[in-house]
Design a protein that fits this description.
By secondary structure, the protein is an alpha+beta fold. The protein has two domains: about 120 residues; about 120 residues, Heat Shock Protein 90 (2-Layer Sandwich). Helix content is about 65%, strand content about 15%. It contains six helices and five strands; from the N terminus they run H-H-H-H-E-H-E-E-H-E-E. Strands 1-2-3-5-4 form a five-stranded mixed beta sheet, covered by helices on one side. Helix 1 packs antiparallel against helix 2, helix 2 packs antiparallel against helix 4 and helix 3 packs across helix 5. The longest helix is centred in the first third of the chain and has 87 residues. The chain is elongated, with a radius of gyration of 31 Å. InterPro entries: HATPase_C_sf, HATPase_dom, Sensor_HK_TwoCompSys, Sig_transdc_His_kin_sub3_dim/P. It catalyses: ATP + protein L-histidine = ADP + protein N-phospho-L-histidine. Its EC number is 2.7.13.3. It is an enzyme of class 2 (transferase).
């Protein structure tokens, strides 16, 4: 087959146009890919910055709690112990009928010393990392039960959980914050703390039967923001299901793998 000059020109022109179109498509695809990579890198930077910021905030709060816990144990606890000793000394100098009154004061001081000791342990982070998540929650539950105004059920399917101790501490702080919210705001008479240890995840649920979370509280509350930041640091999912006058369920799903 022979092509005339005009036909050759048309074929040659068509090939050039086709090549230009292919090059434009390739450039456009390359541009989209580069843009996607830049957006992804930007999102990764923002996520890393948010995690580092949240981690810094958590460390600052842990330092504050550690200081408060140490002060409670070393200062206030010691002063109460001295007061108890002085009380005992005074008791020996009184008549038998007067000692009963001092004995009540002595018992009250003893309870205060014990409560402060237990409370200070929940503030000192290395202590929580040492005893583990399960035992830490059990101690917190015992402390709440002593308040005697809410029924607490602690249900778990495991005695020990093998996860990073620092992650255990963060999970405990999340649970502590959720439980404190229930005690302060829910008006519930019942609280369930459920730990379900699965193969790949640890699922934690805190359930109350209170008034629910008002809509206007939103996610602007510092407590909820703290919980969200803590969950973000350990890549845990955090959700809240609340119904007015029926209660609230907070669910935390921590990936173990």
């Amino acid at each position: 087959m022979k092509f005339e000059g005009a036909e050759l020109l048309i074929i040659f022109s068509s090939l050039i146009i086709l090549m230009v179109l292919i090059m434009m498509v390739l450039i456009y695809v390359g541009f989209l890919r580069k843009k996607s990579e830049m957006i992804l890198q930007e999102q990764e930077k923002e996520l890393k910055f948010a995690q580092e910021l949240a981690l810094s905030q958590i460390e600052m709060r842990e330092q504050t709690l550690r200081y408060v816990g140490q002060e409670l144990h070393d200062d206030i606890g010691q002063k109460l112990s001295v007061a108890k000793l002085l009380n005992n000394k005074l008791s020996s100098q009184l008549q038998l009928s007067e000692r009963e009154f001092l004995k009540e004061i002595n018992d009250l001081l003893g309870e205060c010393i014990s409560d402060i000791r237990n409370l200070s342990k929940t503030f000192i982070s290395h202590h929580i990392e040492h005893i583990g998540l399960i035992e830490s929650i059990e101690r917190e539950v015992r402390r709440i039960k002593k308040l005697d105004f809410i029924t607490v059920n602690y249900i778990h399917n495991v005695k020990e959980i093998n996860i990073d101790p620092k992650h255990s501490l963060i999970l405990f702080r999340i649970i502590q914050e959720c439980v404190n919210n229930v005690l302060k705001h829910s008006r519930s008479k019942k609280l369930d703390i459920v730990l379900d240890d699965c193969i790949k995840t640890l699922e934690i649920r805190i359930i109350d039967q209170g008034i629910g979370i008002p809509e206007n509280s939103g996610e602007d509350g510092s407590g909820l923001r703290n919980i969200t930041n803590r969950a973000q640091v350990i890549n845990a999912d955090f959700t809240i299901d609340t119904v007015k006058d029926q209660g609230t369920e907070v669910k935390i799903v921590y990936p173990k793998i």
